[in-house]
Amino acid sequence: MQIVIQPDAQAVARYGAAAIIRQIRQHPASVLGLATGATPILLYQQLITAYQHGEVSFQAVKTFNLDEYIGLAATHPQSYRYFMQHHLFNHIDIQPENTAVPEGDAADPLLACEQYEQKIMAAGGIDIQLLGIGRNGHIGFNEPSSGLRSRTRIKTLTQQTIADNARFFAPGEYQPHLSITMGIGTILDARKVLLLATGKAKAKAVKAMVEGPLSASCPASALQLHQQATVVLDEEAASDLEQLAFYRHIEQENAALLRRLNRD
Predict the structure, then answer these.
(1) CATH class of 2-263
(2) Residues of the chain with pLDDT under 50
(3) For the chain, what are the domain ranges?
(4) Considering 67, 68, 164, 234, which one is annotated as catalytic?
C-alpha cells in the first residue's frame, strides 16, 4: 500500500485525476471503477477540465460504479446514476452505453447483482478502481462485517452510514437503507486501486485502514492485501497516523527515484 500525503483536498484531487488521466493516455480503452460521495467531486472537476482542454478523451473508456441505493430510479436526484451524470458523464465525451451503475430499481436485485459481476468480467476487469472511505471504514457500501471475498450483492447500511448520508436527503424525504454494492473481493480484483480521503473526520478510519489489523471491522483494511493500492490523503486525514514521518520519508524517496529514472 502506497501512502501519498498532499497538503489539502484540492491537491488530493489533482493527484488522483493525474493518475486516472495517465491510465487513459496509456490505455485509451481503460475500464474505470468510479465512486460517489463528496470526496471524488473535486477529482471529477479536474477530469472535466482536462477533457475541456483537450488533454484526455473518454471516447473508448468504460466505467463501472461501486454502488447504488435500492429503491431509487436512475432519474431520482439522490440516485448515484443521477450523481454521476451531473458531476461527470454529462460533461465529457464518454459513450452513455459504456457507463454502468447498479440498477437500484431492478425488478430482481439479486439477479442484477449477478449480471453486474458478469458485465465487469466481460469488459476484461477494472483497470483502476477509485474509492473513498466512510467514517466507519466502509468502501463502496461494504459496511463493517463484510466478507473480504464478497462479490456484488445487496447490503444493509449501518446507522452510521445512514446518518452520514442523511445530509443529501431533504427533511422527510425517503432515504433507502439498502444498497447494491460491489463486494470487497470485486474491488480487490481491480488491477490498481486509488483511495482518496480528506478531512479530520476520516482520520480514525484511515488509521485503522493503514495501520490497524486486517479485519472485517474495517473493510478498507482489505486494501493491505492489494499490490497496487495507492492511498492519497490530505494533512487532516493523515493526522492520526502513528508512522506519519515514515510515510513522508518513503514518499520523498519514491519521488527522488522517479526523477532519477526520468532523467535516465
Answers:
(1) alpha beta
(2) none
(3) 2-263
(4) 67
